[in-house]
Design a protein that fits this description.
Strand order of the largest sheet: 3-2-1-4-5-10-9-6-7-8
Number of helices: 10
Shape: elongated
Distance between the termini: 21 Å
Largest sheet: 10 strands, mixed
Helix content: 40-55%
Structural class: alpha/beta
CATH topology of the largest domain: Rossmann fold
Number of strands: 10
CATH superfamily of the largest domain: HUPs
Radius of gyration: 21 Å
Amino acid sequence: MIKIDAMMVCLDLSDIDEKLVAFSRTICERMQVGKVYFVHNIKLYELGDDFREMFGDVDLAQEVEGNINDIVDEQFANKTAYEVLVSEEPNTEVILADLVKRYNIKLTLLGKKMSTKSTGSLGTKLLRILPCSVLVFPETASFNIQKVLVPIDFSDTSVHALRLSKNLSDQLGLQLEIMHVYRLPSQFFPLISEEKAVRKAEEVVKGKFADLQKRHNEIAGIPYTLVRAANKSIAERISLHLEKGRHDLLVLGLKGNNPLPSLSLGSVPTEMYNTDINVPLWLVYSEEVIK
């Protein structure tokens, strides 16, 4: 059973906040969550002189905290313990990473606007710096989750994401599908036929699945789909399969094994985050990686 001792919900005082708070309520209703922290950081240096002249010495943090409490009272209404935290720091990523460590946060809920409304730059930075798993909730996503898709590449990272997805599906009665996107070494065409190459590639991948199922008996019965990347990226193929299969949640593993933060996510999770998908995206770290 998946237990979340502490969850952090990042709010930005925009329209998506109400959806995030309501979605956090749904998570608490369906999973064991110890405590929820609703957080917002005020960047005082971004406030212009006009603001200061107009409002003077108003306690902005207190006003923001009151606004968040109003949203939480209206949308959360849950027995789960919660706390509202408002800070005034110049660097939002750093203060949020500090909160994760201070309160032993296991999961951070992060809202995401469509690319036409936001660059998503802060979200990308948070994914690279937060030492915990992140659940990204697009503004167009639904709260109703029934089908889960977990793409794997047979790495330890993706196997961890798969096992977590299996536990989640068993716990909540969800439908789970595994996906693997493969590429063919096109530089060898036309030395060998494309049909033969596809057949051989799928044979190799099926062998990997059989070996994986032997090592992890709990995933033996989960259906899996093999998809050739062809002229598209892996992330593009995942997006197409999400839409075709009408999945409600995408789970991807985060590598986190590179000392350079800019290289720690992996290209597929980064590209998927920057894609306008309409389902929540759960980017998971294993406990070993976080440590």
